[in-house]
Write a structure and sequence with these properties.
alpha/beta, globular, 51% helix, two-stranded antiparallel sheet, five-stranded parallel sheet, 7 strands, 9 helices, Rossmann fold, 14% strand
Length: 197
Amino acid sequence: MMQKNNKKTIWLMGGSGSGKSTAAQTFRALGIEVVDADKVSREIMEKGQKAFNEVLDAFGDKILTNDEINRKKLGEEVFADKNKLRILNEITHKYISEELGRRAENAKGTIVFDAALLPDEFLECDIVLLVTARKETRIERIMRRDGISRKNAENRISSQPDDETYRSRADYVFENNGTPEQLENEIKNWCINEKIN
């Protein structure tokens, strides 16, 4: 029987504005495969893909721009209403889970799944990492990054798991209240200590 290699499945989570994207870029720069779960969720909602018609049936054509789902419009609607968010998640999560499972199975080495949500309903992972930051820092980052109002930024944060929930599920927490370079160095050191490659 062949010995299993040192490949690991890592779930990298964190709420909007936490700096999770910077963390994901650092893993990529280290040569580790990273799958963006948000990108997967966009792909399954493209016209002709699995979730497109179901999302359209649930939310109507007001969310369309040029026959494509406008994620900004959809986001404004669901992040302001927890029930609508639940409906969207019920439609999309099964397809996201299916695709992430396929990617994990086909990974040639360690693979990192970059996601805002908890891994529980998507995938069984070897390690769960959390990137977090102070709430005010996150709000400022979201407003600057996405060009949205403070209210919309706050809605986005409140639609995601709270910090305590994230922390209770994490094997390791990266506190990201400093510079991107500080976060990058912490991740690189963690990878060395944990023999992640």
